[in-house]
Write a structure and sequence with these properties.
The complex is a heterodimer. Chain A is α+β, with helices and mostly antiparallel strands. Helices cover 50% and strands 8% of the residues of chain A. In chain B, a hairpin with a 6-residue loop joins strand 12 and strand 13 (195-206). The chains are: A alpha+beta, B alpha+beta.
Chain lengths: 212, 287
């Protein structure tokens, strides 16, 4: 069975958990004591699992892969026979890779602001993180508004893809980093739509739709 | 007065200032910076292994207990720090589940901790499940000897009450409030007849921000520390957006600002207890 080195409150780990759910794949979650234990920075973790000291990481029968977006590409390529999440189309794949870079930018900004406010990471420039996050959210909001005016709901292509999954969690968790999404109506509408996709699992801090 | 409040309920009490283990490797020359009541304190252990605390050039009273550091800002505590006998009971596992920052008055966090009615909605699949939504009648008393609030006879049906549980059960709860920003929860454990203890100790940064420290003193022979921590943080992470979205970040204590129901007996008692001690820190001024 595939192992996922996992942390419940990580948005990047959420991406992989959600992908497993959508693909209907069984996996075993190996909890990493990210906080307060900083297990992902321990010598054993760096030596055996990921020299970059980051999660998520998967181990698929000895094939070890790090980086949330890389894992999404691997899982979709291997298990999504219909090519729904990572369509076999040159332009779409190019656009998805482009949004992956935006997702990484959210990890560097919005996620870092959340690490500061919620997890006590003092050694980062919180104002620079929030400013950077606002720049990314502005970009996403403009793009989504333009797409909406063309009758499109998602970042790339006619339905939700890995591009949306990669950018979703740290947009939805922005408030935990002290970042308001009040100025981004198209982004908030997209978060709402994403939460209402069939099979959406949610995580602590992002309620699964349903009763709401 | 250098601190962000002049409320004696804060200044003359022992306030948590992080886990004792965080002072490993510190010295007077290389102290650990800790935020408390709007100030940044310097904490370290001296050559004898005793914790020390300073604000600017002024030394502050500090003691290590229950795995945490406790600072009395005025140096004149009105009462000793509460007891936590389960912390040193043989057979229990002690696990520090980490401090999580929450952008709301700490009084809101304690009140939420005492509330069972939200379990099926906020913690669905863990601490509750629709349609099991009824909060059965329970008892709330203030212990005259210690001035602590105790809520007893609390029962709730839970699908997955802890990391050690893999099926639903009716769970027995007891709650205890020791300080305005410190509370304990005792609940049925995996060991018959014994209760797990979960401490929630809030480090006040200002009227609308705390770091919530959670400590487990539990019976569990199978889960790893990482699994126990993941369970507690999953639960707390579910509460966090609810807490941070309160319409008033500070808690109203006047009569009609928010309307309680029968299930809120703990909350009613907690708010009355806060009013009687003249609590002002983290409190919303009456309109």
């Amino acid at each position: 069975m595939i192992l996922l080195y996992d942390y419940a409150l990580s948005g990047n780990c959420f991406k992989v958990r959600q992908m497993f759910a959508w693909l209907g794949l069984d996996y075993r979650s190996v909890p990493v004591d990210f906080h307060p234990g900083r297990e992902h920075r321990s010598a054993a973790f760096l030596a055996r699992i990921n020299p970059l000291g980051q999660i998520p990481v998967i181990d698929d029968d000895g094939f070890v892969l790090r980086d949330a977006q890389a894992i999404l590409v691997y899982l979709a390529s291997k298990h999504d026979a219909q090519g729904r999440w990572y369509p076999d189309d040159p332009q779409l794949r190019g656009q998805i890779a482009m949004w992956f870079a935006t997702a990484d930018e959210l990890t560097r900004t919005a996620s870092a602001a959340r690490l500061h406010d919620a997890f006590g990471y003092e050694n980062l420039d919180i104002e620079a993180c929030r400013r950077g996050a606002h720049e990314v959210f502005r970009l996403l909001d403009d793009h989504l508004a333009e797409r909406a005016s063309a009758g499109r709901q998602w970042l790339a292509g006619p339905h939700a893809t890995l591009a949306d999954l990669a950018c979703f969690p740290y947009a939805a968790l922005a408030g935990e980093g002290g970042i308001s999404l009040d100025e981004y109506p198209a982004l908030r509408s997209w978060i709402w739509d994403f939460r209402h996709l069939p099979g959406f699992i949610g995580m602590s801090g992002i309620f699964a739709a349903g009763a709401a | 007065m250098p601190f962000a409040t002049d409320d004696p309920n804060m200044l003359d009490d022992w306030l948590v200032a992080g886990p004792a283990a965080a002072l490993a490797g510190t010295s007077e020359a290389r102290p650990r910076a800790v935020r408390l009541l709007g100030e940044t304190l310097q904490l370290w252990t001296d050559a004898a292994g005793t914790p020390q605390c300073r604000l600017g050039t002024q030394a502050l009273a500090i003691q290590p207990r229950h795995g945490f550091l406790w600072v009395c800002p005025s140096g004149k505590p009105t009462r000793p720090l509460f007891d936590f006998p389960e912390y040193s009971e043989a057979g229990r596992r002690i696990v520090d589940c980490g401090g999580i920052g929450v952008a709301v008055s700490g009084l809101r966090v304690i009140e939420n901790f005492l509330d069972m009615a939200h379990f099926p909605f906020v913690h669905a699949g863990f601490l509750g499940q629709v349609p099991h939504t009824e909060v059965a009648k329970y008892q709330v008393q203030v212990d005259p000897a210690t001035d602590e609030i105790w809520a007893t006879d609390c029962r709730f049906w839970q699908p997955r009450a802890s990391a050690a549980h893999d099926s639903g059960s009716e769970v027995l709860y007891k709650y205890r409030v020791m300080q305005p920003l410190s509370a304990m929860l005792y609940k049925s454990s995996s060991r018959s007849g014994e209760l797990d203890a979960i401490g929630l100790f809030l480090q006040p940064l200002d009227d609308e921000h705390v770091i919530a420290h959670t400590l487990l003193a539990c019976y569990d022979e199978t889960s790893t520390d990482a699994e126990l921590i993941a369970f507690q943080q999953t639960i707390f992470g579910q509460d966090k957006p609810i807490l941070e979205n309160h319409a008033f970040k500070r808690m109203p204590l006047e009569g009609r600002a928010e309307i309680p129901t029968r299930g809120d007996t703990s909350s009613v008692t907690y708010r009355r207890w806060l009013r009687e001690r003249g609590m002002r820190f983290g409190v919303r001024e009456a309109a």
